Prior knowledge:
Blueprint: E1 2-7, H1 12-21, E2 27-33, H2 42-45, E3 57-58, H3 60-66, E4 69-72, H4 80-88, E5 92-95, H5 105-112, H6 119-124, E6 126-127, H7 130-137, E7 142-144, H8 149-162, E8 171-177, H9 192-195, E9 200-201, H10 210-221, E10 227-233, E11 240-247, H11 254-264, E12 271-273, E13 291-298, E14 303-310, H12 314-328
Helix pairs in contact: 1-12, 8-10
Amino acid sequence: MIKVGIIGATGYAGAELVRIIIGHPETELTAISSVSFEGKKLSEVYPSYRSLCDMECQNAETVVDKSDIIFAALPHGLSQELGAECINKGKAFIDLGADFRLESESEYKEWYNGEFINKDLHEQAVYGLPELFRDKIKGKKLIANPGCYTTGAPLALAPAVKNDIVKTEHIIIDSKSGVTGAGRGLSQTSHFPELNEAFHPYKIASHRHTPEIEQTLSKLADKKVKITFVPHLLPVNRGIISTCYAQLKENITKEQVRTIYKEFYKNEYFIRLLDDGQVADIHNIKYSNFCDISIHIDERTNMLIAVSAIDNMVKGAAGQAVQNMNIIFGLDEKTGLMLVPPAF
Length: 344
């Protein structure tokens, strides 16, 4: 059994990790930590875990010592030293925060106002989006788990960008997220009276996930890709829907686009390419590790419109982290992730 530790287990992503790990047949949850709730049982924080996980929250050092692999579900800026400690002790480390996602230190400084504490450690880190970078993940011990927006949008665009059928000068990504993406701490915008029956964009053209999405698409295109990215806050708990717009190159037909997408994702269990005429919907992926993608062509403007739907807490966070763990330990990627979306 793989001994798993979770640091930051009482946040939304951490709690979701617990939910998945306790149902994983090849793992044993050995320790969890929380700064805010140290000494409390997880089931006291989340009563739904009563008798399923009554484990007490300990300190981070204890979690590292007791585990083969450590998941860190922490805000950015808190994982670099922790990652170094895990690697030095021969442990695998999967960071659900942003500390290891960007390859450029200058971009990290610009968007997160931080710096790379250990540059050698950053060179060891691998960006853990399995459907796009699986071969690089295998055999590694330090994984930067992508965020929610940075999973859904690139997966919608990857086949088109990789196969050079769209112009990459100005891609537009319009994403809508459930409120769990903002974390467990309450803010004015996530306060119920502000959120309920409301819908608005935020951090327009200035969201921190922008360079991360550009980094992924640029790798696929083998050239610099720039995007306009606008996220929105939906008054729902879970889910991200990303509608991505890219200008098709001349003489690319709808049939060619569909063939390219089918070929690109033909062996990817967690990617569900919808039939022509269907539209991706967050209702259909809730609580699962699936990414539903629908592709549409505006023939009047020769525009590709690719839509993806993911659960931001699963494929956009904890589920993808477990998928990465499965790859690291040579397990079938689906292990522990056969999570069926509810029909209603």
